[in-house]
Fold these 3 entries.
Entry 1:
Amino acid sequence: MSAVLWSTTARIADALNAANGTADHEIAMRVLKVVEEAGETSAAYIGMTGQNPRKGTTHSRADVADELCDVIIAASVALHSFAPHPPAVLHSKLHTAARRLNANTQPDTTAHHPATIESE
């Protein structure tokens, strides 16, 4: 799926480049599209939970998932404007986040060994 995501978003970015150019304004619009899609995700979640009493429950979990996919697509397209090899940038960021999570979930062994702390 990853290869399909990146080849498809590259084609979308290329089409946008051809139609709209690559000036700063166009690049800004691609970033704003991510924000727009995130807002639609928020609206779908609010609709799913029925938080607006005037409207009631208007969306489903599938609607929220659909909107999240739009965020991923918009972000992937925008990333093409900021990185020569977007898959590598995401891969690196993903692994950094995973390492951070792993570091935060490991037991703190230094708390029981004061000498370890002093030697650092």
Entry 2:
Amino acid sequence: MNDFLKQLMRWAVRLGLLAAALIFLASLLFAAGLLLMLWLMRALWAKLTGRPVQPWVFKMHRADLWQRAYRATAPGAGRGKPSVDVIDAEVTDVTDVSDVREKRP
């Protein structure tokens, strides 16, 4: 009887994992189809209004990004600007050490 229940549980887990995988695949296909329909409607609207169909792109100017990063790490980049988030702190003298014992070899 225990072997039968073990086999039954194995098949139930397998069927559950298969169902989860199919649901995940269906949701991915649905999302891709939704994006496709949105893009096709956008292209149709562009054709109806006589405008050119613009692709969905992410424009990135690499030279500008390089210059911004290079200027940020350049020596003296932070000079000349007052720091806004300076916190006043009490300064204590750390040269007065009284609890140090001399070690001898």
Entry 3:
Amino acid sequence: MAWDEWDQLKASAAAQDSTQMQLNQYPGDQGGGGTRGDLEVSNQGLEAVGKAARDLFNDFTTYSGHARVASEKAAGGLKGEGFALGGALEHVSARWSEQTKTLLDACAHISNHLRFTKNQHTADDSYIAGAVSSIATLDEGFDDLKDH
């Protein structure tokens, strides 16, 4: 870029009132099929996440149990033969059990929270439907008064 071209760009920017701030952002709701700023999720999506959490819980319970039992058995055998590695493996096995419980608790929490959320939304939908139908009934009463 030549120096005069740079000067020309600076002059052009100054002429456009460059003292204003411009923020780059996600465009707001454009309506009519445009972008939407709200988070939306379907029941199908929630069910898939809940199922994945339950499957992980069930599978990890089974397989982590196998690993724990095998590690404890190996640690006991090594300790029985006088190897210091047995104590270290026993420590690793204990930590494995603690971490396993943490992961299983998280999976159960996800699954339970999704079940609660689904039930709460069902209750909310029922309440809203009742409130809206009450408004419609009230509106009908006002409409009847207009006719007389």
